[in-house]
Specification:
Blueprint: H1 7-17, H2 20-27, H3 34-44, E1 46-48, E2 63-65, E3 68-70, E4 74-75, H4 90-100, E5 104-107, H5 114-120, E6 125-129, H6 135-147, E7 152-156, H7 166-171, H8 176-184, H9 192-199, H10 204-213, E8 218-223, H11 226-234, E9 239-242, H12 256-267, E10 273-276, H13 282-290, E11 295-297, H14 299-332, E12 345-347, H15 361-364
Parallel strand pairs: 4-11, 5-6, 6-7, 7-8, 8-9, 9-10, 10-11
Antiparallel strand pairs: 1-12, 2-3
The protein binds flavin mononucleotide (FMN).
Flavin mononucleotide (FMN) binds next to helix 2 and helix 14.
Amino acid sequence: MSNFSTLTEMAALARKKLNKGDWDYLIGAADTETSLRRNRAGLDSWAFLPRILTDVSNVEYSTELLDQRLRIPVILPPIGSIQAFTDAGAIDVARAAAEFGTLQILSSSCSPDFESVAMEVQGPRIYQLYLTGDEGWMDSQIDRAIKSGYRGFCLTADTQVYSRRERDIVKGYLPQQAREAIEANGGQTMSDQGALNYQSTMTWETVRHIKGKFDIPLMVKGVMSPVDARQCVEAGVDVIYVSNHGGRQLDHSIACIDALPDVVKAVDGRRPVLVDGGFMRGADVVKALCLGATAVGVGRFEALAVAAGGYEGLVRALQILEREVAITMALLGAATLGDLNPELLQRQEGATGHQYLSAFPLLDENYFT
Ligand SMILES: Cc1cc2nc3c(=O)[nH]c(=O)nc-3n(C[C@H](O)[C@H](O)[C@H](O)COP(=O)(O)O)c2cc1C
């Protein structure tokens, strides 16, 4: 079911369909949720300064990442427990990515697992692994991902330990997969604890080890500092991914859109730079492109869309996002991605309340219910 024609309706439909536990797991963030709000506030604080009288009768916005064509400069980030939002879980995202023409980064903590998804759906994909074992275990996972045809490998570096998400804690909420793991474990609390310990042992040596041993492009997700961005380039990391995990890990971090310009400067065109954190609309995407991003990740957008309408919902949402990108570029006087640059942006006071759903102000007025 993909019977929505605006992204606001998509968000409203998702909210209607999800129970409170799953909804809060999706939109919630760490501690005071300041990083989450700052992501949106950062995006809202960049305003366009359009150019006029250029021929925009044919706007071109498709691009490439790791030799894969992206129909729009947007990718689908890893979402753990995506099966909480749509029964088919990662399969729905895989099908939508293949049908629309974008890249899915598949989380190791969702179901079906990476090998089942690869068998079920053709298409280029990247595998994001949380370390829940030692180096030998990690190597065998990377080996299996390569054998399953994954085109890239993603290390998420901002999850050394799991944060405190109060919406989930107060309700004792656990996503379905975690519940099942506990049941399978005879009711004992998670292997999760072990998982988090391995994550916290990850260092630059881990990066060097992967680059030295495997012939698969490596993406590091969670880069916020230009110092780390430069070090990624020096260590041979193939894609630099600016992210604060959608505000779900370190609270009170700067907005990802505000981390982007310095990272782009440090990388200096030597690698593609991705960014996520609060991106919901075509105009948000175009702002990141103006500031030098190669492509933008849309995390909660992806989950809202599958919650609203399964894989068809995600395809529909991406089509609407595409229209928004095309219209924004045309109205900016930009016919190609090469026409987008920082001079098309200025800092302004944000125009809406700085909260996660400020991308959908009409929701607050119950406009769609
Ligand atoms: C429900 C949920 C689960 C997530 N699970 C993962 C994960 O398994 N691995 C990961 O690297 N990032 C994970 N993230 C972070 C996203 O990949 C992405 O960085 C973030 O959602 C971007 O912010 P946005 O939601 O504002 O777009 C998750 C985010 C959400 C909302």
